[in-house]
Request: fold
Amino acid sequence: MIRVENLFKSFRSKPVHKGVSLEVQEGEIYTIIGGSGTGKSVLLKQIVGLIRPDQGEIYVDDKRLTTLSEEELQDVQKMIGYVFQESALFDSLTIGENVAFGLRNLSDTKEPKITEIVREKLALVGLSGVEKLKPAQLSGGMKKRVGIARAMAMNPKILLYDEPTTGLDPVMSDVISNLILEVKKHSGSTAIVVTHDMKAAYEISSRICMLYEGKVLEAGTPSQIRFSNNPIVQQFISGSSEGPIPVPTIDLV
Ligand SMILES: Nc1ncnc2c1ncn2[C@@H]1O[C@H](COP(=O)(O)OP(=O)(O)OP(=O)(O)O)[C@@H](O)[C@H]1O
Ligand SMILES: [Mg+2]
Reply:
């Protein structure tokens, strides 16, 4: 469903991706882990066509993104629900209008149906009745959940979740993890999840891949990752500051 081939991306000559390749099968929940700044969000943005790669190819549902016209790219984007790391809600719109945005602007769904879908998706993320509020009136975790409801509103074939449980309390994190699993089961959709939440990653993933120094360091089933022999993978998943991964030194004077 999604194929990334030998992707290179730099920002002002600073390399982020140095040959990333991965393949996500239809119906999978594919989780990407990796240190802060390793390019997880930039990878999702390239998959959805918001950032162009310097080199390499991305295929979504067999369409080669680099060769598509604006219009063809928009058709691919309509198949994808994107949960942004920073929620990215429109501040001037109400929560209901935010969730309805894609349905109103990119589909021919009619009004009473839109209201019903908005209510249903907000209920799924535990936020019934907030339609009339503005984003500024919600907590960070609530905004995150509105972002998830918005991404699900068009029943997309592919869902990209950028840290869907970050900033949520442990119970709500579990609710969202279960929701990601349920949505996959019901609609057969394909998902890529970027997360630092290893508990969620083990529970929901078909496969997990770790990005490190611009490449995929290791990819495998949750248990293959959990019991990996690679000391970098082990240090990362156990969350230790001791090991091969360079960390800032603390030198108080
Ligand atoms: N639009 C941009 N312009 C310039 N540099 C960027 C841009 N977007 C990302 N970067 C840089 O690319 C690198 C990877 O960023 P990215 O946001 O993908 O990291 P990440 O793996 O998602 O990290 P985190 O876990 O903290 O969210 C960082 O060094 C970042 O500064
Ligand atoms: Mg990120």
